[in-house]
Amino acid sequence: MDIYLPIANLSVNALVIVFFGFGVGMLSGMFGVGGGFLITPLLIVYGIPPTVAAASASSQVTGASVSGVFAHLRRKGVDLKMGMVLVSGGVLGSLVGGWLFALLQASGQIDTTIGILYVLLLGSIGGLMLTESLRSIRAHRAGIHPRARRRRHHPLVAWLPLRWRFYGSGLYISPLAPLLLGFFTGILTVLLGVGGGFILIPAMLYLLGMGPTVVVGTSLFQTLFTTAAATMMHATTTQAVDIVLAVLLLLGSVTGAQIGARIAMKAPPEYLRLALAIIVLLVAVRIFLGLAWHPDEIYSVELA
After folding, report:
1. Domains of the chain by residue range
2. Is pLDDT at 134 greater than 80 in this prediction?
3. Hey, which end of the chain has fewer CB within 10 Å, N or C?
């Protein structure tokens, strides 16, 4: 079932795109991440131009985040004050990211830049996740239960001036820390089409010292508004958002997220993290091969 993508200017199998959305949605439901860090490289591997893949993935992540935000708001799992600071930084980062995207696009280096950034990010994150999950599995088999980590923000965060009280998170820190974190995530959202949850959640836990009960909801709150701003930025400047592609991805991700949430309630978390780490590393290797490997003959003629 082929369908034409007007912005990408090519025909794709609609069922394959829906399946991609389904798979990433399932991972989103299992791990609580937006899934943009996987859907963009998968689209690139499938043959979608990196510019269109990154821009369209932002709109898909926006739609997928809406239901999650409302669910966490109902159970008071969102620190709105912290979220607004993160969103402010994310919107500013989106403006800078849009400028960088247009600059790289004009120079003809945007595709290569996106590929290199994905190899670096996915390779480092996948390696850390693989190491942590294997350590957890070995400890579980040996019957060792790790001590709960004491919640405390990083010394660099404590050094920053102008402290505010964030009652939802139980923190008394400078707003500059979440502002800078949101700014960095906003840049990545525009350049790579990611929601940023795979960076935000660890940073909020280990740098800001936020409690786990509000981390996921606050991250989704920031992701919703930042990806919406990134989508608008792409739509008005780069014109790279393919709405047909985004709708197909959303059709699959909505169903996949529900199934993934059910799997997450039954499967051991350390094995889920191990599976995600392997998937992330495989995608990183595939993108690296696409960047580094060149055929012996650029053109070939096949006689019928």
Report:
1. 2-143+151-290
2. yes
3. C
